[in-house]
Design a protein that fits this description.
Strand content: 15-25%
Largest sheet: 6 strands, antiparallel
Helix content: 40-55%
Mean pLDDT: 84
Number of helices: 12
Strand order of the largest sheet: 3-2-1-6-5-4
Structural class: alpha+beta
Shape: elongated
CATH topology of the largest domain: Beta-Lactamase
CATH superfamily of the largest domain: GAF domain
Bound molecules: adenosine-5'-triphosphate, magnesium ion
Length: 424
């Protein structure tokens, strides 16, 4: 299949000098990070310089030992229709051993080793020029340009320019592959982290439901013989109902955690996300004597975030703060700040401060652990201890971090830091 979207290359007589052309090409490759844009830019340039109207670019697929089509344009050719070419294909093995271009129109470009198979392979693919893109001696990609050799042969200067452009293109593709590899291992690490915490959570869940299950079981065993004892039945069924609520709540939180998906990031105004959560919390605190203050930085940088998940983070932190302030004159202050961190990177920070009970030094080391809670009171509103585990997970999935400062009897402040969108 031919990619219809890119413009056909400009094959009109060139007005740029080779140096200007090279500078423009290098600059364009440096500004793109998107794989398909880089691929199209490379292919357009190679087609322009060789005055070939059709082309296909293949990129090394390291895991499957083959080259897959990255992009193509121009009239359909056999090359454009091949989704992948094996790394043992005779054309590929020939390209891997040369730094120069293979051109059907230029017999001098064919070595004796090429002569047997290469011309017929190129003809079968309906291409006349094959350009290897090598980096550190490895064939990273190659371009096949067509059609068959009725177009003029590029000049000697053109051929030399082509080799320099190909080297530039290979370097750009190499950085792109390194970047992709890094991103993949990052995702893998996160996934492994996640599996490990799910393992802890599953173990914790078994432990957490043991007590309520024991009480439910005891009630069921005793109920037949105590059925006449109205007080027993009334009191015990209330306890059992609370235990059932607790199990339901645990199941719900674990499902929320397990169902958790990769964040869908959008460009957001964090101040606005904070305000929307505060609106909800204000309604919840209307009956309590808690004063809410908000100080939002006017120069807060924009952040790429999953709005729903960051709202979940803020609500968990705000509700924890409210739980901790079961006192008169509670004061909850939410601030946002623009931060500059080492390396001159800009971050956005949300600070949530309360003057509640505070957290003891011993407890502080465990607040992010699954099932750590001091809200043991049975009932529908008791804590499960998964709130901060989920908060921590989400913040890290956003490449951010979370810090906490607390003094018992004075209050607690949480800081959520998220990297700003870099200015390009
Ligand atoms: N702002 C705060 N002030 C005082 N203690 C806090 C604060 N935030 C968290 N904590 C402590 O950390 C513990 C863990 O919090 P976390 O949100 O994970 O669980 P939880 O609130 O107990 O239950 P839930 O899973 O329902 O949120 C709390 O039980 C509490 O002891
Ligand atoms: Mg909580």
């Amino acid at each position: 299949m031919t990619d219809p979207s890119p413009q056909a290359p400009d094959t009109s007589p060139e007005t740029l000098t080779p140096l200007q052309r090279l500078a423009r090409f290098a600059r364009d490759l440096g500004t793109h990070t998107d794989r398909s844009l880089i691929a199209r830019r490379i292919l357009t340039e190679l087609c322009e310089v060789t005055a070939r109207p059709t082309g296909t670019l293949y990129l090394l697929d390291q895991e499957r030992e083959r080259y897959t089509r990255l992009t193509s344009f121009g009239k359909e050719s056999a090359a454009a229709n091949a989704p992948a070419i094996s790394s043992t294909h005779p054309l590929v093995t020939r390209l891997a051993h040369r730094t120069t271009v293979l051109a059907l129109t230029d017999p001098s470009s064919l070595t004796p080793a090429d002569e047997g198979t290469v011309p017929s392979v190129l003809e079968a693919l309906q291409v006349s020029i094959a350009i290897p893109l090598l980096n550190k001696g490895r064939l990273l990609a190659f371009a096949l340009l067509g059609p068959l050799p009725d177009s003029p042969q590029p000049s000697q200067d053109g051929m030399e320019l082509l080799i320099v452009l190909a080297q530039n293109a290979a370097n750009a593709l190499d950085s792109m592959l390194v970047h992709d590899d890094l991103r993949q291992s990052h995702t893998l690490m996160r996934r492994t982290d996640r599996l490990r915490s799910l393992e802890i959570i599953a173990g914790g869940f078994a432990h957490e439901i043991r007590n309520p299950l024991t009480s439910i079981k005891t009630f069921i065993q005793l109920a037949p013989e105590r059925r006449e004892d109205a007080e027993f039945i009334r009191d015990f069924s209330r306890i059992v109902l609370e235990d059932v609520y607790r199990i339901e709540r645990l199941i719900q939180e674990i499902l929320d955690y397990a169902r958790y998906m990769e964040p869908t990031l959008t460009d957001e105004d964090l101040n606005e996300v904070v305000s929307s959560c505060l609106y909800f919390v204000e309604m919840k605190t209307a009956t309590k004597r808690i004063k809410i203050e908000k100080e939002l930085a006017p120069d807060l940088p924009r952040v790429m975030l999953d709005r729903q998940q960051v709202q979940q983070v803020l609500l968990n932190l705000l509700l924890n703060a409210i739980d901790a302030m079961n006192i008169q004159d509670g004061r909850l202050t939410v601030r946002t700040h623009r931060l500059t961190r080492p390396g001159n990177q800009t971050w956005a920070q949300i600070e949530i401060e309360d003057n509640g009970a505070g957290i003891s030094a011993d407890n502080l080391a465990h607040i992010f652990d699954p099932f750590f809670t001091t809200k043991h009171a049975s009932g529908e509103h008791a804590g499960t201890g998964l709130g901060l585990t989920i908060v921590h997970q989400i913040v890290h999935e956003h490449d951010g971090d979370i810090q906490v400062e607390s003094t018992e009897g004075v209050g607690t402040t949480f800081f959520v830091n998220l990297p700003a969108i870099p200015i390009t």
